[in-house]
C-alpha cells in the first residue's frame, strides 16, 4: 500500500511538471521574425521599396541611414546602417480604420533594416517588422475577419519582400511576458465646435509639432487619411478628421538601437493617430505604449526600463498640457 502511494505521488508530480512545461510553452508568443542577407543590403532594401506600389503599398516616410544622425548628435557608432520605412496600403486600410480607429497605431506600420558594424559573428543585414498578431494584440482587435484582413495585407508585403530580397537566414524574437492588458494609450480632448475643421486641424498640428519639438521629439512622417480618401474618391465619412503622425525621440532611440538592441527598431517610429468622430467636438488620440516594447522584447535592465517609461510619461504630460485627458474607451 505504501509503495502504491509513492508511485501515485510520483506520477502526480510528473503530471504537474508536464502541466507547468505546457503552461510555460503556451505563454511563449512570437514578437517578430526578422530576415537576413549577407553584407550591407541597404541598396536591395531601397530597390524593394521602389516596387511596393505594385501591390498597392506606399511609404508615409523613408527615414534612412539614421546611424549618421546618431553619430553626429551623440558621437556613438555601433551600427553600419539602420533605416525605417513607414508602410501603408491605403485601400486595404480603409475598411479597417472605419471599423476600428485603433488600427491607426499601425497605419503606417514600420518595416526596418539594420546592420551592425562588421563583426565575424554577424556580418548581415536584418530586416522585417512586428508580427501581424503582435500588432493586432496590441490594439486589442478581436474580430476574426478584421484580423484576417490585416494579416493578409501585411503578408502581401512579406511575399514581395521575400521575392525581391531572397533572404538566406532568419531569427525569431519571442516573448514570455504577456503584452500589456491595455496596449494602447488613449486620450480625448474636447474643443469648441467649428465649421472649419480644416483650419482647426492645421492649427492643432502646428501647436502639436511645436510642443513636441521642445521635448526633443521629431515628426518622422505624417499622413492625413481624411484627405487621402477624399482625393481617391473613397467614402470616409465616419470621421470629420483622421491623421497619423510618426513620433520619434532621437536620444531615446539612440539609447536602445545604438546600445545593443537594434532589433527594437521594429517598434519605431511610433504612429500616433488622431481622429474626430463625425459631428462631435472630441479629438481622440492613441498610440502603442512603451510597455509593449518592454514586454515583447523581454527587457530586463531596470534602469533602461525606467528611462523608457519616463519618456513615455513625457508624451502623456505633453498631451495633457494640450487639454487631453487619459480615458479608457470601452476596451478590456
Describe the fold and architecture.
The chain has 332 residues and is an alpha+beta fold. It has a single domain (31-326), classed as 2-Layer Sandwich (TATA-Binding Protein). It is built from 11 helices and 12 strands. It has helices spanning 2-27, 42-49, 66-74, 90-99, 132-139, 144-165, 197-214, 225-231, 250-257, 291-296, 302-321, and strands at 29-38, 58-63, 79-88, 109-116, 124-128, 169-175, 184-190, 217-224, 239-249, 270-277, 282-288, 325-326. It has a 6-stranded antiparallel β-sheet with strand order 2-3-4-5-1-6. A hairpin with a 7-residue loop joins strand 4 (109-116) and strand 5. The longest helix is centred in the first third of the chain and has 26 residues, at 2-27. The protein is globular and about 60 Å long. The termini are far apart. The model is unreliable at 6-26 (pLDDT under 50).
Amino acid at each position: 500500500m505504501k509503495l502504491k502511494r509513492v508511485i501515485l505521488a510520483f506520477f502526480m508530480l510528473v503530471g504537474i511538471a508536464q502541466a507547468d512545461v505546457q503552461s510555460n510553452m503556451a505563454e511563449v508568443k512570437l514578437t517578430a521574425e526578422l530576415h537576413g542577407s549577407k553584407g550591407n543590403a541597404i541598396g536591395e532594401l531601397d530597390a524593394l521599396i521602389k516596387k511596393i506600389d505594385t501591390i498597392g503599398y506606399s511609404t508615409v516616410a523613408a527615414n534612412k541611414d539614421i546611424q549618421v544622425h546618431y553619430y553626429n548628435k551623440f558621437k556613438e557608432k555601433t551600427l553600419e546602417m539602420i533605416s525605417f520605412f513607414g508602410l501603408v496600403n491605403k485601400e486595404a486600410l480603409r475598411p479597417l480604420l472605419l471599423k476600428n480607429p485603433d488600427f491607426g497605431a499601425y497605419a503606417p506600420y514600420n518595416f526596418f533594416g539594420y546592420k551592425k558594424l562588421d563583426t565575424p559573428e554577424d556580418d548581415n543585414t536584418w530586416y522585417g517588422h512586428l508580427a501581424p498578431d503582435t500588432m493586432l494584440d496590441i490594439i486589442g482587435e478581436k474580430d476574426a475577419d478584421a484580423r484576417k484582413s490585416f494579416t493578409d495585407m501585411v503578408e502581401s508585403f512579406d511575399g514581395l519582400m521575400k521575392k525581391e530580397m531572397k533572404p538566406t537566414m532568419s531569427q525569431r524574437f519571442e516573448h514570455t511576458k504577456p503584452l500589456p492588458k491595455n496596449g494602447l494609450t488613449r486620450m480625448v480632448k474636447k474643443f469648441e465646435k467649428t465649421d472649419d475643421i480644416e483650419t482647426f486641424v492645421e492649427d492643432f498640428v502646428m501647436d502639436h509639432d511645436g510642443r513636441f519639438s521642445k521635448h526633443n521629439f521629431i515628426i518622422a512622417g505624417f499622413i492625413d487619411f481624411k484627405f487621402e480618401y477624399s482625393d481617391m474618391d473613397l467614402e470616409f465619412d465616419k470621421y470629420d478628421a483622421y491623421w497619423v503622425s510618426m513620433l520619434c525621440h532621437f536620444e531615446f532611440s539612440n539609447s536602445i538601437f545604438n546600445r545593443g538592441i537594434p532589433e527594437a527598431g521594429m517598434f519605431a517610429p511610433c504612429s500616433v493617430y488622431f481622429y474626430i468622430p463625425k459631428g462631435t467636438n472630441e479629438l481622440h488620440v492613441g498610440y502603442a505604449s512603451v510597455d509593449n516594447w518592454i514586454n515583447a522584447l523581454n527587457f530586463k535592465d531596470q534602469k533602461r526600463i525606467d528611462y523608457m517609461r519616463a519618456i513615455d510619461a513625457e508624451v502623456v504630460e505633453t498631451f495633457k498640457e494640450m487639454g487631453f485627458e487619459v480615458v479608457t474607451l470601452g476596451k478590456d
